[in-house]
Amino acid sequence: MTEGGREEYVRAYALTGGRTQPRHILALDTVLVAGAGRLGPAHSHEYEEILSLCRERRRSVAELAGRLARPVTVVKILVSDLLDSEVLTLPVTTPYDVAGTEPGAPSTQLLAALSAGLKRKWPDAVPYRRAG
Fold it and tell me: For the CA atoms of 40, 41, 46, 51, what is the dihedral angle to 10 degrees?
């Protein structure tokens, strides 16, 4: 391992404070936007970069990791810290919202997609039938 490689490893470890897991469940395609919170004096340059990128437009975790040239797990931990301090937020979207459904109720498209996914995952499962 080269000296530079070791520095990068130590730097990532130092960035996360030794943490290996984020506090929030974040997927690669989780989209983030800048929130109302503010960065504190203890936040590193990477936090500022993440916030700057998310102020430009919505960014996914994968895109942030690529832009920062950092491992995804490190970026997830940093993003999790920013979510805790409300510097970043998760935009609330309803991609399956359909006119005519009551608010908060799952749409037929969502239920159909869920059913199809479950059938792919467990093709031999027996459907539940109510008695009576």
Answer: 30
Beta partners for 72? Answer: none
CB atoms within 10 A of CB 33: 13
Tokens of 67: 């832009």
Strand partners, 60: 31
Question: Taking a C-beta distance cutoff of 8 angstroms, is the pair 39, 48 a contact?
Answer: yes
d(C-alpha 33, C-alpha 50), whole Å: 10
> Residue 59: beta bridge partners?
32
CB atoms closer than 10 angstroms to residue 26: 20
As given in the structure block, the two tokens for residue 72 are 């995804």
Q: How big is the chain, counted in residues?
A: 132
pLDDT tens-digit readout, 59-87 = 999 999 999 999 999 999 999 999 999 99
Q: Is 24 helix (H, G, I), strand (E, B) or coil?
A: coil
